[in-house]
């Protein structure tokens, strides 16, 4: 597994970075990825809670926490626990911020190898332009990602800079995301400068 020290956009997902690497079994456990419903056996729910606390501890000590949280809230609708938050918490954070993000498939979780490798949008377009006759499968192979990831990036590019056609909105600042996180996850109201 990779340990990445920079804080570029590609560090935004939890499978690429140092904080998650030693705890990958925890972060990929289905109980953490999909917490059991209230009707599930108590033992499973207790275990899920315990895992969430462990993951929260890992994230709290991760040097990439702010970048990871920001990306998981603003850029990609990642699955599972990331950036010190569960999927449900991130949904609530987005509601606070009045933003939505398009769902991403598992390919965008920025895994390091194979089909889960993170793929930079610009890199996909650069390779496509440089190799216009190459099959999409070939591009996917070069990029180390899945065919669906290549298609999605090309589809996004065709739609233009505003993506889905919704009016472009200014993304929230990190301060705003952190304030919403503090409120949703910790119940702490952070005053922000006007
Ligand atoms: S904040 Fe958490 S999920 Fe994100 S990279 Fe760090 S340990 Fe992984």
How does this structure look, described?
The chain has 194 residues and is mostly helical. The protein has 2 domains: 9-99 and 174-186, no CATH class; 113-159, Orthogonal Bundle (Arc Repressor Mutant, subunit A), CATH 1.10.10. It contains 9 helices and no strands. The model is unreliable at 1-17, 105-117 and 162-167 (pLDDT under 50). Bound molecules: iron/sulfur cluster. Residues 14, 17, 19-20, 58-59, 62, 64-65, 68, 82-84 line the site of iron/sulfur cluster.
Summarize the structure.
This protein is mainly α and 194 residues long.
The biggest sheet, with number of strands, parallel, antiparallel or mixed sense and barrel status, is: none
Q: Give the % helix.
A: 40-55%
Ions, cofactors, ligands: which are bound? iron/sulfur cluster
Order of helices and strands: HHHHHHHHH
Mean pLDDT: 77
Uncertain spans: 1-17, 105-117, 162-167
Structural class: mainly alpha
Please compute the radius of gyration using only Cα atoms. 18 Å
Strand content: under 5%
Total helical segments: 9
Number of DSSP E strands:
0
* Basic shape: globular
Q: Span between N and C termini?
A: 43 Å
Question: Which tags fit this structure?
Answer:
binds iron/sulfur cluster, 194 residues, disordered N terminus, globular, 9 helices, Arc Repressor Mutant, subunit A, mainly alpha, 48% helix, 2 domains
